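During the first year of the project, the team set up a workflow for recording each protein of interest as an amino acid sequence followed immediately by a discrete structure-token representation. This format lets reviewers and collaborators read both layers of information side by side without switching files. As required by the reporting guidelines, we include two representative entries from the current panel. The first entry is reproduced here exactly as it appears in our internal archive.
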Amino acid sequence: MPVAGTLIITESDAFGKGIPKTVLRKASGILVPRSFRAYTDAGMADRATHSLPDVDVVIPVYGERSEALAATLSACRAQTYPIGRIIVVDDGSPEPVSLPGGAGDSGQTSLLRLDQNLGISGARNAGIARTAAPFVACINTEVLPDPDWLASCRNCLLSYAEAGACYTRLESATPRRLLTRWRMRFLETKFGEQSGLAKFAPGHAVLFRREALEAVGGYDVRHRLHHEDSDIGQRMRKIGWETRYLAESRCVSIQKDTLKQLAAKELRESYWYSPAESSLLRLYFHLSKWTILRAGRNILKGRIYFLPVDFAIWAAALCTATARTLLPQRAPGRK
């Protein structure tokens, strides 16, 4: 049952009543989302009428823990700079997502429930289409921005006229867990101590200038699972928009790492998505090569404790891909 005061929207309702479905145009033979400007004019007028803050937040969800969503929403509401609207996008989760008790009572937070899984890019685009603020933050579930995160990133964008996106470092809430240590070292971006220019903003939490989002047409929906962050950063950079890294604030990851999750991410990093799209033989060669190289570096660096994780994830990833190849099943969602 939906929480009282929560706005529940299906994909067909949302885009059939004033918010049209994300339109695609062909450019150089690929599909990319068209500008959001055409369908946020009404939202801009409403924002001016009600004097809402100039930042909206989009949080995509696909099967994450309900307590993780509650924690992310709580961290957003605890920001020292006020937020206008928070759009939670249920990306066709196997079990429909509901907002935590009381989250929708004020009308600030709404739930956009998509009829089918669109992937991380499509889910973010759907959420962005319901925003109208000059600044839009895309924050992943299981990520907790520090209270000063929004104010710091907004000040950064205001300080640099050419900055289209800003992000901060990501730290783990459980840095001593072995699987988490492995993920943070080998699968997450390395963050420096100095603020400055960056090639792109990792997708955990990013504040965008709407003008930059409109200029590139949002996220490319072909990137369903990963690399959507580097792609949009590259397209922004090509037309003159910078991405800034801010060392003064941070976000905290509360992801509970498991072998299954890390193996799935290794498959994505190896560009293996499904038997129909990717070669199992190539995967065996690629993943085995990089696992041996990583294990060798761990031995040389004295990180012997990572060796069981290296080979456990290697085995889990190959078992998953082999089983899906030999025993075809329903295509999974984006997680």
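The second entry, processed by the same pipeline in the following quarter, appears below.
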Amino acid sequence: MPVGVCAYSFNTGYDAFQLMDMAVGHGLDGVEFPPDDCLPDLSPSTLERARTRAAESGLFVVADGGQVESKMLRRLIPAAAGIGASTLRVVMSGVLGGDRRPLSGRWNAHLAACRDILREALPLAEKHGVVIAVENHSDATSHDMRWLCQELDSPYIGITLDVGNVLAVCEEPFGYTERLLPYLRHVHLKDYTIHPSDEGYRIARCPLGGGVVDYPGLLSLIDGYRDQRGQAGRRDPADHPGPAGQLGPADQSGQSGQSVQTDQSRWTGEITKTIELGAIYARHVRMLMEDYWAEYPDRDIRDLLPFLRLYWSHVRPGGEDWRTPREKDESIEVLKAYETREFEESVAYLKEIGAVRTNSGTS
């Protein structure tokens, strides 16, 4: 069960080599970072230095890219290979809190454009042995993500599942994950608390184990999937038809939304995971506003029940303070102590539930 640390857990700045030291010091197995931000440059010598350091430390590496865009992919796919990363995480949009209103009337076209750009990048990804793993970045439903993988149907396309971001589109982690199991390549371990608002709810950062996610159960589901697939007669969750109207652009035209599918895109190797603690600003999910839903297909209320049950069993009292030090305009020293404490509490929690080995590290 390889677990590492992601640079995005921290807003106070660590470079790639400091992250590697942090991972080793806490008994973790890998690192995830954006080469553009965590390395001084992308020269061959710098990439090789990072690759060598990670290999000598016994760490896996996941590279972070930005929004799906041709120039970015052409630049970062070779860079990812240069640092020894077999996975490049990317995102499809800048939508936050599930709020697609800035893309009014254009969400399905945007998804289709991302698909086309990713398809063009597949030969380069294959050449370098790098899987492009698209993250659900508070924007995409599980059906959007599954549609994308089915459309591209390639072993060089997969999914970075951000567990906390699932909550931003009014889904719950187990159902979301199960629908995407065949395509998971990487997982962001993130937890959130839920706080009510007049317009919907906020999801606020917390240490792993301090929010709504049942990590023992979820990790068991993910880590057991590869063995389960080998059982005769078992159907993949991705073969189960999803709720009507939720399978991506094709579905909007009255088609099924499902393309002819082979096993090409189904990953059966190790699924890496990194601790990526939540956003430093709470995400406001304005799901009680009628226009919030304009860019979503119609959803049967019964399909919302798993999320609603999660919400009502975990929602915090209305007056509780959900703000981070950044939201309170506190000092950088306070923010750094806060981030360090939450990271160390998260490592301790993962060791407590058996997700991280306990025979090494400082936490």
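For the second entry, the following points were noted during internal review. Residues 232-248, 250-263 have pLDDT under 50 and may be disordered. Residues 3-352 form a domain with the TIM Barrel fold (CATH 3.20.20.150). Both points are flagged for discussion at the upcoming steering committee meeting.
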